[in-house]
Amino acid sequence: MATYNHFYEMPVYKTCRAFRIKVTTFARKYFPKSEDYQLKAQLLNSVRSVTANIAEGFGRFHYQENIQYCRQSRGSLTESMEHMITAFDDNFISKQLLAEINSDYKECLAALNSYIRYLKSAKLRVDNNK
């Protein structure tokens, strides 16, 4: 795996950032005003947390802490997907938009899981060399 100097250079961050931008755009476009302080606010908080946790973990400089922040990111990603399912159930978005978001969600999930696996193996290498 390549070495990155900044979190925003990493493919996992770029993938999750694209997801955040898309979800935010859909929420602003399709959610009714009545949801500004309810579902929309919850969704925006959770989807922003996905990339924020990747960034914070990267800045910790310790594998185990980075892994934990990536797990939190994964939880926020899944929470965001649940909010989009709720938006579909409440007829705010179409089945087609939900399917598009679900596809992007799966891509982000795979990227996060790969990054977590990499961090675990890197931690193991360091621990074995002590």
Describe this structure in words.
The protein is an all-alpha fold and 130 residues long. The chain has one domain: 23S rRNA-intervening sequence (de novo design (two linked rop proteins), Up-down Bundle), CATH 1.20.1440. The chain has helices at 11-30, 39-58, 63-89, 95-128. Helix 1 (11-30) packs antiparallel against helix 4 (95-128), helix 2 packs antiparallel against helix 3 (63-89) and helix 3 (63-89) packs antiparallel against helix 4. The radius of gyration is 16 Å and the shape is elongated. The mean pLDDT is 96.
Key terms:
130 residues, de novo design (two linked rop proteins), mainly alpha, 4 helices
Which secondary structure elements does this structure contain, and how are they paired or packed?
Layout (H helix, E strand, L loop, with lengths): L10 H20 L8 H20 L4 H27 L5 H34 L2
Helix pairs in contact: 1-2, 1-4, 2-3, 3-4
